[in-house]
Design a protein that fits this description.
Number of domains of chain C: 2
Largest sheet of chain A: 9 strands, mixed
Chains: A alpha/beta (about 400), B mainly beta (about 170), C alpha/beta (about 375)
Largest interface: A-C, 66 and 60 residues
CATH class of the largest domain in chain C: Alpha Beta
Largest sheet of chain C: 9 strands, mixed
Number of helices of chain A: 14
CATH architecture of the largest domain in chain C: 3-Layer(aba) Sandwich
Shape of chain C: globular
Structural class of chain C: alpha/beta
CATH superfamily of chain A: Thiolase/Chalcone synthase
Number of domains of chain A: 1
Number of strands of chain A: 11
Radius of gyration of chain A: 19 Å
Oligomer: heterotrimer
Order of helices and strands of chain A: EHEHHEHEHHHEEEHEHHEHHHHEE
Strand content of chain A: 15-25%
Strand order of the largest sheet of chain A: 3-2-4-7-1-8-11-10-9
């Protein structure tokens, strides 16, 4: 593939992630967007187009949610569209924005992600029942946690992984989140705490999961020429990849996310990366549940199948380790307003590669970073590879 | 967040704040009702379930027998070719033991969802269903199970015509 | 500048109900036809798939989960754009222009007959705090708009009725259409008053169907077909979602989208260069309002042109030779792609009895429907720019 032109992230912003925000979805989107724009000293007039990512309308109880949020996201009287691939949306929105600019149609693009899950009563989790097949699955009364539990069980079984090993991820990320000012559930916990927490759907326990949240995040993209005028430290999006597996998830072996591998390969090819383990300096894979971080590390080819728990145990994935994973605190620590969480990961890599992550900064000179999101029925992988100047 | 930012936007509320009326709120109950056309493949699947049988489709090219049945083979991108009667026994591919209901409330007796690979279909071809008449502690991946059907008069042509799968002795 | 072309199209045609087929089976049919038309194998040749859908039309959250299998897209790049089919087309177009993919597919469908409470679902799109509590059937918003449009442009109900008569009559020649009929202006004016001034026959009726299109980069397009249809320019825009601050008479979103598309296509004299157009006619007055916003005629002129027969298939400026939504059926997010389909067929010379003679450049426009003020435009041509 021959990419038409280089695109960089030049600004980023996000709101706090909270369980139940007083602010409306529009207001959350506005604040994140404003912060991103202010960080670049651009105004909305300078922005060519806007793209929004947000996951199920069922949470907000607003149909065509993209239209409703358009003014809060800066989309008034602009080319505006909403992209949607379930949980993969956060990183896909960045990809969607990327080809808005890479195509040559626009020089700047505003990418906004917002989620307001708390609107759904009595609990947002109930809305998740509607993601299952309308005829062959919904009558069984499924809960979202079921499919995570089914996948976690299969993964544990395939590689003989213990709950203790998996719990280390939750411990790491929630602790990392103590340094994130927007975090919803930063806390110092132990493996014991995780194993003693309430069993929701074995093998999933409460401290294995990220919370439902409200929040928003935004980034500003610019073409190469424009980026260099806006900042001395643009962060290039050098690789994008996305892939969706079959809807017939019960026909798949869930122990390995093949679709994440396919998405990663597409992004690596574009970025010219041959040895991801060596060439990626910092990564933010999607971690809605602790085992997912491990699952995705393997799918991203950052280690061999079944090897991720070992890397975690050895401290390789700590901030000061050889391959820092989720230095932000991830979804487990910062929160999971689905689409905004994915874009938060892109923001984190952006700040890390510019050495602006403060207490969360991974030491040394990280130059290449990766953000990945995941979603649907254990189905979609969306990946971006980013590079510092 | 970048170290350059000092102020972070977002105010958390608690469930009590709303219940106690500390914040104004409005409510709406959506009326979104659907009557989905099951189509050729799933209509037959449901009809056979009513008759006490699980059916799949075969693709003549890749020779897979797939279940739930579909009229197209997603690997070969061509129509599937024939109906195949499957067994109502299978193997547990993965399972969970759930103590929460669909709306996240706690339940006392756990529900055991599982992916069950159906005998007669290609390897790995599972369907989602529940396990029953089994002690949760004894469920294992690889366990052999058999469908427990509702009595013929109670079957309506739905996945719930199978009550659950129970362990084979 | 390199261009992107549409190299294959497939459609199931529109029907008022499709109880025999699931949405997956409809999509499979349209996809099979499109790949046959393009001479491509999706498993091998297609790099990206763009679907359009909204969860609440389908009754399933994260609907994109259920699209890959019947399109041949398993383990391939697939995404969903929550908007009309033209937005999906534009997304596929941008993906190819970026260089990341060479062949991309766009899909849209309507399973309107599966919705048992469609107007309640539309009501769910209203602002939950300031609009929804007012209750009622949300299509009153279209009535408000029609009223203001008629007031400001002096367009009459009779002029709007000519649009209905024209489109339903033209649909009789369209094998894809569901609601072709021979009716008179009086039939329209005498039909049941729904949301003053909108009468029943001013409103298009829902239909089911699916469309898939294959797009390719210039190099690949030339290898695949002798008859590529080039995308010369695209534009899209969202005006305010708030009803309270909206310009009710002018379709500002269509104006902005058109300006963007015409600029990209390097077209200075719109009326002269556009041989025919397919514009949104979800409601009769929308066809007129959109023609004015697209700059194909002056403000207030569209109704007069319609009356004079200028917008008929054999007129000077054919509009909706397919029969539009009024004649073919309203297909929610597929509506715009239905418009694009007709443009493609016309430009290929494959429009049969509907053929607009000498059609070389056509325009397709969509609107996202009540309660939005968003829409997109695509300008297509049988010739490359400068040719």
């Amino acid at each position: 593939m021959h990419i038409k032109r280089r695109v960089a992230v030049v600004g980023a912003g996000m709101t706090k992630f909270v369980r139940r925000a007083k602010e409306t979805g529009k207001e959350l989107a506005f604040e994140a967007t404003k912060m991103a724009l202010d960080s670049t000293e651009l105004t909305l007039k300078d922005i060519g187009c806007v793209t929004l990512g947000t996951a199920p309308d069922a949470f907000d109880g607003v149909h065509m949610k993209g239209e409703y949020l358009s003014d809060g996201a800066g989309g008034w009287r602009k080319p505006y569209m909403r992209c949607y691939v379930g949980g993969g949306t956060g990183v896909f929105a960045a990809i969607n924005g990327w080809y808005h600019v890479a195509s040559g149609l626009f020089d700047t693009c505003l990418v906004v992600c917002e989620e307001k899950m708390s609107s759904c009563q009595p609990h947002p989790q109930y809305a998740f029942q509607t993601i299952f097949d309308n005829i062959t699955e919904r009558p069984l009364g499924p809960n979202l946690v079921w499919i995570f539990a089914l996948e976690m069980n299969r993964y544990m079984h395939a590689h003989n992984i213990s709950k203790e090993e998996i719990a280390l991820v939750s411990v790491k990320n929630k602790r990392n989140a103590l340094d994130h000012p927007c975090a919803q559930l930063p806390q110092k916990i132990t493996v014991e705490d995780v194993l003693n927490s309430e069993v929701l759907a074995w093998p999933v326990q409460r401290l294995d999961i990220s919370p439902t949240s409200d929040g928003a995040a935004a980034i500003v993209l610019a073409s190469e020429d424009v980026a260099r005028k806006i900042t001395d430290t643009p962060v290039w999006i050098d690789g994008v990849g996305w892939s969706l597996d079959t809807a017939y998830w019960t026909n798949r072996d869930l122990f390995y996310p093949k679709y994440v591998e396919y998405a990663a390969r597409m992004a690596y090819e574009m970025a010219g990366i041959n040895n991801p383990r060596k060439e990626i300096d910092v990564a933010e894979p999607y971690d809605p549940f602790d085992y997912k971080e491990l699952h995705h590390m393997e799918g991203l080819l950052l280690c061999k199948k079944g090897e991720a728990p070992k890397l975690t145990k050895e401290g390789v994935t700590q901030r000061d380790g050889d391959l820092p994973i989720c230095p932000s605190g991830g979804l487990l620590g910062v929160g999971n307003p689905i689409a905004a969480a994915g874009l938060m990961k892109v923001c984190e890599i952006f700040w890390q590669l510019r050495k602006e992550a403060g207490k969360r900064q991974v030491p040394g000179d990280p130059r290449t970073g990766l953000a990945q999101a995941w979603g649907d029925l254990m189905q979609v992988g969306t990946v971006v590879v980013m590079r510092a100047q | 967040m970048s170290v350059k930012n000092k102020e972070y936007f977002g105010t958390g509320l608690s469930a009590e704040d709303i219940k106690e009326g500390k914040v104004l709120y409005s409510r709406w109950r959506p009326k979104a009702e659907y009557g989905w056309a099951a189509g050729v493949a799933v209509s037959r699947y449901l009809d056979e379930l009513r008759k006490g049988r699980i059916v799949g489709r075969k693709c003549g090219k890749c020779r897979r027998v797939v279940v739930p049945p579909r009229m197209f083979c997603e690997w070969c991108f061509k129509p599937t070719d024939s109906w195949v009667n499957l067994e109502d026994t299978g193997t547990v591919n993965t399972f969970a033991i759930s103590y929460i209901a669909a709306d996240a409330t706690r339940i006392k007796e756990p529900i055991i969802p599982a992916v069950i690979e159906i005998d007669g279909a290609s390897k790995g071809m599972g369907i989602l269903h529940l396990l029953g008449e089994v002690d949760p502690k004894s469920v294992k991946i690889g366990m052999r199970v058999k469908a427990v059907w509702k009595p013929p008069g109670d079957r309506i042509g739905a996945i719930t015509d199978i009550k659950y799968f129970k362990p084979l002795p | 500048m390199e261009e992107v072309a549409i190299v294959g199209v497939g459609s199931t045609g529109l029907r008022s109900v499709t109880p025999d087929m699931s949405y997956k089976e409809l999509m499979f049919e349209a996809a099979t036809k499109a790949y046959e038309d393009a001479g491509t194998d999706p498993r091998r040749d297609v790099d990206s798939f763009v679907c359009v859908s909204e969860d609440f039309w389908e009754g399933t959250s994260i609907f994109d989960e259920y699209v890959p299998d019947q399109l041949g897209a398993v383990l391939k790049p697939v995404c969903t754009i929550a908007a009309d089919g033209v937005y999906g087309l534009i997304t596929a177009y941008m993906q190819i222009l970026s260089g990341a993919v060479e062949t991309a597919v766009v899909e849209a469908h309507s399973k309107a007959s599966d919705m048992l409470t469609p107007t309640d679902i539309v009501a769910l799109a209203l602002d939950p705090v300031v609009n929804r509590p007012l209750g009622g059937n949300p299509y009153y918003i279209a009535g408000l708009e029609m009223n203001r449009y008629m007031y400001e442009t002096k367009t009459t109900k009779e002029q709007c009725a000519t649009v209905v008569v024209k489109n339903k009559r033209e649909a009789l020649s369209n094998p894809y259409a569901a609601y072709g009929a021979k009716i008179t202006i009086d039939d329209v004016l005498n039909s049941e008053m729904m949301f003053y001034p909108l009468s029943r026959l001013d409103m298009s009726a829902p239909a089911d169907g699916a469309i898939v299109m294959v797009l390719a980069s210039e190099e690949r397009a030339r290898r695949l077909t002798d008859n590529p249809i080039w995308i010369r320019g695209v534009g899209w825009c969202s005006d305010t979602p708030r009803l309270e601050t909206r310009d009710w008479a002018n379709a500002a979103y269509a104006q902005s989208a058109a300006d963007m598309a015409f600029k990209a296509a390097n077209i200075a004299n719109r009326r002269k260069e556009v041989d025919f157009s397919e514009v949104d006619d979800t409601f009769s007055f929308k066809e007129l309002q959109h023609l004015e916003a697209l700059g194909l005629c002056r403000r207030g002129e569209a109704g007069v042109l319609a009356e004079e027969g200028v917008t008929e298939k054999d007129g000077d400026m054919p509009v909706n030779p397919s029969g539009g939504s009024l004649g073919a059926g309203y297909t929610f997010e597929m509506t715009g792609l239905q418009r694009v389909l007709e443009v493609v067929l016309q430009l290929r010379g494959e429009a049969g009895k509907r053929q607009v003679p000498g059609a070389e450049l056509g325009l397709a426009q969509c609107w996202r429907g009540v309660p939005t003020a968003s829409g997109a435009v695509a300008i297509l041509s049988a010739k490359r720019e400068g040719a």
